[in-house]
Description:
The protein has helices at 12-15, 20-24, 35-41, 69-72, 87-91, 116-120, 149-156, 193-196, 249-253, 298-301; strands spanning 56-57, 101-106, 112-115, 126-133, 138-148, 164-169, 188-192, 202-207, 210-211, 221-223, 236-242, 276-279, 287-290. It is an alpha+beta fold. It has a single domain, classed as Oxidoreductase, molybdopterin-binding domain (Sulfite Oxidase, Chain A, domain 2, Alpha-Beta Complex). The chain is globular. Mean pLDDT is 88; it is low at 1-48.
Amino acid sequence: MLLRTNKTKIASSEITPESAFRNRRQFLTSAATLGAGAIASSLLPASAFADALTTFPSKYTLPDALTPIGKAAAYNNFYEFGTEKSDPAHNAHTLQVRPWTIQVAGLVKKPLTVGIDDLLHYRPIESRVYRHRCVEAWSMVIPWDGYSLSEFINFCNPLPSAKYVQFISNINRKQMPDLPSEYNWPYSEGLRMDEAMHPLALLCFGCYGQTLPNQNGAPVRVVLPWKWGYKSAKSIVKIVFTDKQPRTLWNDLMPEEYGFYSNVNPNISHRWSQAHERRIDSSLLPHTIPTQMFNGYGNEVASLYNGMDLKRYY
Length: 314
Ligand SMILES: Nc1nc2c(c(=O)[nH]1)N[C@H]1C(S)=C(S)[C@@H](COP(=O)(O)O)O[C@H]1N2
Ligand SMILES: [Mo]
């Protein structure tokens, strides 16, 4: 596979006890590992791991002008590292992104734990330019790097009874000294299974051709471009398949504002009017543009919600 991960490579045997990933599918990466080197490099701040990814162009690429990386990596919501937009960029260097595993639990044939480097090498990494819309009424256009979440879900072998998937983010109080106490950590989000299987739902390892900056959710997050930004959970450590709608951090806290579906909808006010958004791009002056239904992805995703009252299922 065409990824330069030498610096981040650790022995897969340490992190995927059953090496399930390697054995069960076309796992193509070389087995070379750097024993002592991995230990030494794990002592560096995590930001030192930013590494180039080789990516392939995707059909899911918008023509919109890109948000510069300097803005996308400086204006973030990642409450584990503080609630000001500038906090994550200042604080998230304490996040350790290796070793890292994702635990797969719930309604699956066999629960398993997957190492981040196995996951990263599982499929070719596409570069997809997506619109990214926060309920705070700003939006960005970001080239995210990853592959469809459906590829990983298929690997997980969910049972037919699995109707939802829940994402659980990392929580580590030592690495998160500014963790606000008023939230029910860890951060959790969820999707209906058919939403999670939609090819637009991205399992994301990087942006702008590099591994994710910590503040953007390293080493792995999801990106769901037709939904409000908070659905796109960062720094995921666990995926649970369930038959009931899973709890989510925001839905627990304010269910009347943060619905489970959270599809971008300019006609429903959510905290405040969502009819317009401030597009953050390379221009010096902020400009405001109308928000589109499903963030402009209606052709792709509207059929997921056929027959549903989107005012009720907001
Ligand atoms: N774990 C975790 N994931 C999270 C958040 C968070 O606070 N913690 N914030 C969400 C919100 S509100 C948004 S808008 C996006 C922001 O992603 P970005 O900082 O990469 O633009 O991440 C989402 N994922
Ligand atoms: Mo957000």
